[in-house]
Structure formats: structure tokens, C-alpha cells
Design a protein that fits this description.
By secondary structure, the chain is of the alpha+beta class. Helix content is 38%, strand content 9%. The protein folds into three domains: 30 residues; 181 residues, Orthogonal Bundle (Penicillin binding protein transpeptidase fold), CATH 1.10.3810.10; 361 residues, Beta-lactamase, CATH 3.40.710. Helix 3 packs across helix 9.
């Protein structure tokens, strides 16, 4: 082995003379090596005095390679190119790749997990848009849209082109280039929100918003967001961009209970989305960020400020020019009313109330053709508003209603109150009130049917029926008067006598036959209109006097069709039944003409037109009515207060008659005057009490002037009628206190074969 014996033989040859002069100690093993002393080959040196060279071991090489990698190289050794800046870049790229892979795996797992919780894609379908009911006037103009959306769906090509441009510019500029999700838009929104420290922009595309609106709840959760993305991908794969945009614009919420651009356009601008201009389109698009907060009905300034931003975005995208934006910005801000307004909405509500009874549940878009004349509707609303504004305050009258009906029963105009925005309750078709003396024509018609005539004479004197003693309004009595005079002056005593002669139950039957549907009490006080009815049914019951004796069932719906034109319902009022004999109609018309020419309805006279009607006032001036007609229209008007407070001596011949005159003048503008049914060339008929001489009926219809029968009304009494209503409260007084005898006409006396009944029968309707 090249060692020497003796004490020094244990050192390798030449170590004593090495340059370092360092002594190398031996290494001793454990006891199980047999006590041998061995030298490792690395401890040997080659000849001479050269530096010892160690052999490389595998472990030592591995350590060196590891140190080299730590120094910055992906290769071996300590190459100068593996460290420094470039090494940091490589390490950053490396970890980005690693984290990206793991992130993709995590996202994929979430997508798979939440996607598995959704129904199978094969079962996905676009939910049906809530049905819309489009309500049209007689000329085809839109009255209103009703339904959950508030407007119909319209095709993209039918909209104003500014609408989709404005929405794309402010909500999703890359709508036509992305695949349902916009990574660039999402990144931009995230950066903007981070730098501003709050939520300023959203990263959802129009497709994602549509998916959320169609299928998902509005809650902000990771699951909902993942599902939104999956649904957006599905929408983009199944539908074209234009189809997606059209669905979005027809369903998105624009505030103020308006869903879709058509509903919003009509809500805020009172026009179709087909006709909106650039500024209006910008305002609509601006609402999408916060529909309720930015609604012009709530905050017009905020809505306009947002619209200006939309216009700027449209210019940046090249949709509009500088001149167009200048024009749009110069337009006055939109001032939308806080709520739906206009009397036509009373009509729309009436249509929706009647619709289920005609076709059942509404499950598809419908088109309703009505009988409403929008020009008359607007004029009716204006007339009532003008009268309330001019006289309502001083007369303590706060509300009014109007209904106008033609000879077939078609409702041509209906106003349910002073202002629909303030109160949606329909006082024309839903409120039941006592009609007062406006009910008397039914009493007189029933009397004519049992043989009485306009020339029949009765004694105007105090009357007692049981404990009831009805009085005239002025508490005066005129002695013998004809029925025609009594109706013209609305004498309560004569009406009470007639109802007892005819029988209350027969008066009720006639009123029902003519069109009143409400239940009525068949008692003596019905002579003064104490049973409650609606203004619609009362007015429609006057129509048989206008049309020659045929029932005029009130109706507003003429036809119901689907959106594709399939007719589901059409009214059947073309062949109405006859409810009054033509001779009775003729006599009643002659009598009620005098209400306007000589009686309590003088304020309602129409220059050049023959008109008839009747005033009505209820107890303590709670309600005042005038119902009248020409050969074209029957119109009823009511004034009063919702809480039943007394007006200041407002009678049917005052405020209602003047409003009736104003409306009917407008309604008959441009029409040629025509006489009422049976008012010319008819010979008078007299019963046993008649006083007129035989011969042709004079021009006024009755052969004697009202002033020849009883003294002229006191000054200031024109338009003031007898007090109507439940006299049991204010107008009942014992006959001995009233003074004067019971009239010789005899309460309960009948002629012409009608059986005499007991007082109990008459009072109870038996």
C-alpha cells in the first residue's frame, strides 16, 4: 500500500513534506471493523509535493448541483447567465403558469359543481313574457297597456334606432363581438372599481343581464354568477345577437312599473318606442343603471344628467354626430308625471275588471277594441276639471264623474274621478249613490204604462204615506198640475202619489227592465230615488228614451283578439230587446224636454239641439246629478265628495247641468241637429183627469205653459229642484204640522183595472 512500518508508517507517503504542513488525523471505525486502520483513497496524494486532488463522489456532485440551482440556474453549475434579473423573471413566469393551471382547475371544478346543480341544458327554454293587454279606442289609438310589463313587445327593427344604439353604447360596447362574456369589459370594470374604491361599473354583458332576468334571482352569490355565465353561453349559442338584444329591450325594467322599452316610452313620454327621439332614447338607456332612482318621474334632474353621459358614449362609439348631440342636449328635460294619469285609465281598469269574465285567465298577448272615443274622453275630463277648478272650492265639491253612452249602450266616454293619479277609484261604474229625482222618469214611465198621460192632473198638496210626508224643495204647493208640469218642476208630492198608484214593485220592475241592475227597495220612498245605483247603470237606463224603447246594455269592450288577430270575443248587442212601447217613449221625451226648456234643467239647454233629461239632488246636498240625452248621446254627470260631506246648496240643475252643457256642446260639434224620438206630430192622449182640449199638440208638446198651471218660480230659483233623498230624516213631518188637507187625488187610488192594495202592501212592496 506504499506505507512504512513503525510509528510513522501510518501516514501516507510524502505528507510530512506537504506544502501545508497540516497533519491529517486518521479516522477510526467502530469496534466491529476488527481494529483495522484504513486510509481512504481520497487521502492519497500523487507524487512530488503537488496539492492533493480529491476524487468526486456522487453525493458531493449532487450537493454542488443543488447549490448551482439555488444560485439561479435551471441548468447545472453556477453559470453567470442564470442569476440576477432574468432569473427573477423566469421564476415569476414559472409560478404564474403553476398558479394559472391550479386556478383553471379550481374554476373548472366550480363550474362543474354549480353546473351540475342546474337542470339539463336540453330542458332550458326562454320563459314566456308576461302577457300584455293592449287596449284600443274606437279609432285604433292606444288607450293603455295593462299586464305585468305595462307594454307590448315590439320587434327590434320597429323600435327607434336610437334605442339599441344608446343601450349598447352605455351598457355593452362590444356586444356584437363577444361570446356572451366580455373579459376586457370585466377587467376594465374591476380596475375602475378598485381604483375608485367602490362599485362604479359592472362587468356583466347584455347577454348576462338577460340571462339573470330570465332565469335567476337577483341575489349576489358565486353560484348565481357561475350559472349566469353558463346561461349566457347558451343564449349566445342558441340565438342571434339581434334576437338577444330584442329580448333584452322588451323585458328589462325601466322603473315606475314599466318593463320593456314600449312600456317605458308610453310611461315617460306618452308615445310609442317607435317614435322616441335621440334625447329620449338616451334617457331610457340611462335608466338601466338604477331604474327606480333615476326615473324621471322621481328625479328628472338625475335622469337628465345620466342621459348626457349616454349621449357622450354614443358619440364615442360613432353612433351620432356632434350636431346631433348638440341638438339632443338642447332639448328640455323630460317631466314625467309621478303616476299614470289621464281619465282613459279608468276605462282601462274597467276593461281589465271585465276581461276574466269574458275569456277567463289571460295567458297570451291580447288586443282589446273598445267603444271609447278618445276625443270625447279628453273633453269630458277637461270639462269636469274646469268646473271643479272654477266652482268646486266655493261650493265644497271635490269630486265628479261622467259617463256618456250611445243608443246601443256603447260607452263613448267615462271619467271616474277628478284625477286618476290621485285616486284610481272609479266613481262612474263602482260607486253606488242615491240618484234622487233623477230616478223620477221611471216612476212617470210606469204611470204612463198603466194609462196615465202627460196631461193627467194631480193635486200638489201635502201628502202623507204612513208616517212619511214628502215635501217639495221650496215647501210650496201649487194645487192642480199636469204630470208634465210636475216632472218639469220635480215636484216630490206628485211623484209620491204616482208611485203609490202604480205600486213600488212595478216601478222597480220597470227600472230593472230599462237597465238598472242594482237591488232596489220597493217602497214608497223610491219615488225620490232612495235606492242606490251607479252612474253607468242610471245613464244607460235613460238610453231607451233616446233610442225609441230598446234596451241599451252598457258595454265598453267591442272585441277581444289575440296578437295574431284571432277573435276570442265580440259583443252581441246588435239586436237589443224592446223594453218600452214607442208611444210611452214619445210621451216621456216630450215631458223631459220641458225639464230643460221650462224646468229645473235650464242650465243644460243646448242651442239648436232638442235635448231632454232630469236633475237629481240627494238629501242635504250630498250628491248632485244631471242625466240627459239628445238623439245621439245619453250623458250622466255627478258631483259630490267621497266622504259624503254636504255641498253648499249644489243641485242637479246647477253645477252638473252646466258641466253637462259644456260636454254635450263639444260632443255635438259638427253634427246636424236632429229631433228626439216621437217629439213631432204626435196627438195627445188624455185620461179621465185630463184638462187639455182635443187637437194637435202645440210646439211645446203639452198645450199649456208651465206658468199657466202654477205661479212662476221665485227669483233665483232657476235650476233649483225639489229636495230628493230619504225624507224619513229631514223631510218627514206630520201632516197636521205641514198644514192643508190630504190631496183629493188619493194616495193609492188606481184606475184602469189595476187592483187596489193595502197601505202595508204598498210600503213593503207586496
Amino acid at each position: 500500500m506504499g506505507t512504512r512500518s513503525g510509528p510513522k508508517g501510518i501516514f501516507p507517503s510524502g505528507m510530512a513534506s506537504g506544502k501545508s504542513g497540516q497533519r491529517i488525523e486518521p479516522s477510526f471505525g467502530g469496534s466491529d471493523d476488527g481494529g483495522d486502520l484504513r486510509v481512504d483513497a481520497s487521502d492519497r496524494v500523487s507524487g512530488g509535493g503537488s496539492k492533493p486532488k480529491r476524487a468526486k463522489s456522487p453525493e458531493r456532485g449532487a450537493r454542488r448541483e443543488k447549490r448551482g440551482r439555488r444560485a439561479g440556474g435551471l441548468g447545472s453549475g453556477r453559470s453567470g447567465s442564470g442569476g440576477g434579473f432574468f432569473g427573477l423573471v423566469r421564476r415569476f413566469a414559472y409560478w404564474c403558469i403553476v398558479l394559472g393551471i391550479w386556478g383553471a382547475i379550481g374554476v373548472g371544478g366550480l363550474v362543474l359543481y354549480y353546473g351540475a346543480r342546474m337542470p339539463s341544458a336540453t330542458s332550458w327554454s326562454i320563459p314566456e313574457r308576461p302577457p300584455n293587454v293592449k287596449i284600443l279606442a274606437a279609432n285604433g289609438d292606444i288607450i293603455a297597456n295593462r299586464g305585468a310589463t305595462g307594454g307590448e313587445a315590439i320587434a327590434l327593427e320597429d323600435m327607434s334606432p336610437y334605442i339599441p344604439q344608446a343601450v349598447i353604447a352605455i351598457e355593452d360596447r362590444r356586444f356584437y363581438s363577444h361570446f356572451g362574456v366580455d373579459p376586457l369589459g370585466l377587467a376594465r370594470a374591476m380596475l375602475t372599481n378598485v381604483t375608485s374604491g367602490r362599485m362604479v361599473q359592472g362587468g356583466s354583458t347584455l347577454t348576462q343581464q338577460l340571462a339573470k332576468n330570465l332565469f335567476l334571482s337577483p341575489e349576489r352569490t358565486l353560484e348565481r354568477k357561475v350559472q349566469e355565465v353558463l346561461l349566457a353561453f347558451w343564449l349566445e349559442q342558441k340565438y342571434t345577437k339581434d334576437q338577444i338584444l330584442a329580448m333584452y329591450l322588451n323585458r328589462v325594467f325601466f322603473g315606475s312599473n314599466a318593463y320593456g322599452v314600449e312600456a317605458a316610452s308610453r310611461r315617460y313620454f306618452n308615445k310609442s318606442a317607435r317614435d322616441v327621439n335621440l334625447g329620449e332614447a338616451a334617457l331610457l338607456a340611462g335608466l338601466l343603471k338604477a331604474p327606480s332612482r333615476l326615473s324621471p318621474a322621481r328625479d328628472p334632474e338625475a335622469a337628465e344628467e345620466r342621459a348626457q353621459l349616454v349621449l357622450g358614449a354614443m358619440r364615442e362609439e360613432g353612433f351620432i354626430s356632434d350636431s346631433e348631440i348638440t341638438t339632443a342636449m338642447s332639448q328640455a328635460p323630460t317631466r314625467a308625471k309621478s303616476f299614470w294619469s289621464g281619465a282613459e285609465h279608468y276605462v282601462a281598469d274597467m276593461v281589465m275588471d271585465q276581461l276574466p269574465g269574458m275569456i277567463g285567465e289571460v295567458t297570451q298577448d291580447l288586443v282589446i277594441d273598445t267603444t271609447i272615443d278618445l276625443a270625447l274622453e279628453k273633453r269630458a275630463e277637461e270639462v269636469l276639471a274646469e268646473r271643479l277648478e272654477a266652482e268646486g272650492g266655493k261650493l265644497n265639491a271635490s269630486q265628479a264623474a261622467l259617463v256618456s253612452i250611445d243608443g246601443t249602450g256603447a260607452i263613448r266616454a267615462l271619467v271616474g274621478g277628478r284625477d286618476y293619479a290621485e285616486s284610481q277609484f272609479d266613481r262612474a261604474s263602482k260607486a253606488k249613490r242615491q240618484p234622487g229625482s233623477a230616478f223620477k222618469p221611471f216612476v212617470y214611465a210606469a204611470a204612463l204604462e198603466i194609462g196615465r198621460t202627460p196631461m193627467s192632473v194631480r193635486n200638489d198638496a201635502p201628502v202623507r204615506i204612513g208616517n212619511w210626508t214628502p215635501e217639495n224643495y221650496d215647501q210650496k204647493y201649487r194645487g192642480e198640475v199636469t204630470l208634465a208640469d210636475a216632472l218639469a218642476s220635480s215636484l216630490n208630492t206628485i211623484a209620491a202619489q204616482l208611485v203609490m198608484e202604480v205600486g213600488p214593485q212595478n216601478v222597480v220592475k220597470l227600472a230593472h227592465r230599462l237597465g238598472i241592475d242594482s237591488d232596489m227597495q220597493a217602497n214608497a220612498s223610491i219615488a225620490l230615488g232612495t235606492s242606490e245605483v251607479t252612474l253607468v247603470e242610471l245613464t244607460s237606463s235613460y238610453a231607451p228614451f233616446m233610442n225609441g224603447g230598446f234596451k241599451a246594455t252598457p258595454h265598453v269592450i267591442r272585441r277581444i283578439s289575440t296578437a295574431d288577430g284571432t277573435v276570442l270575443y265580440e259583443n252581441t248587442y246588435d239586436n237589443p230587446p224592446r223594453v218600452l212601447d214607442p208611444a210611452i217613449v214619445s210621451e216621456m221625451n216630450r215631458m223631459m224636454v220641458r225639464v230643460l226648456t221650462d224646468g229645473t234643467g235650464k242650465n243644460a239647454r243646448l242651442p239648436g239641439w232638442e235635448a231632454a233629461g232630469k236633475t237629481g239632488t240627494t238629501q242635504s246636498f250630498r250628491d248632485a246629478l244631471f242625466v240627459g240625452y239628445t238623439s245621439n248621446l245619453a250623458t250622466g254627470i255627478w258631483f259630490g265628495n267621497d266622504d259624503g260631506k254636504f255641498m253648499k246648496k249644489v243641485t242637479g240643475g246647477g253645477l252638473p247641468a252646466r258641466a253637462w252643457h259644456d260636454f254635450m256642446i263639444a260632443a255635438h260639434e259638427g253634427l246636424s241637429p236632429s229631433p228626439l224620438f216621437g217629439t213631432t206630430g204626435v196627438q195627445p192622449v188624455f185620461d179621465e183627469g185630463g184638462i187639455a182640449a182635443a187637437g194637435e199638440m202645440p210646439a211645446d208638446g203639452f198645450g199649456t205653459d208651465n206658468r199657466d198651471v202654477f205661479p212662476e218660480r221665485p227669483a233665483g230659483m232657476d235650476g233649483v229642484e225639489s229636495m230628493d233623498g230619504m225624507a224619513a230624516v229631514d223631510q218627514v213631518r206630520p201632516a197636521e204640522q205641514a198644514g192643508g188637507p190630504i190631496p183629493p187625488a188619493g194616495v193609492g187610488e188606481t184606475t184602469g183595472g189595476t187592483r187596489r192594495t193595502t197601505l202595508f202592501d204598498l210600503l213593503t212592496g207586496g
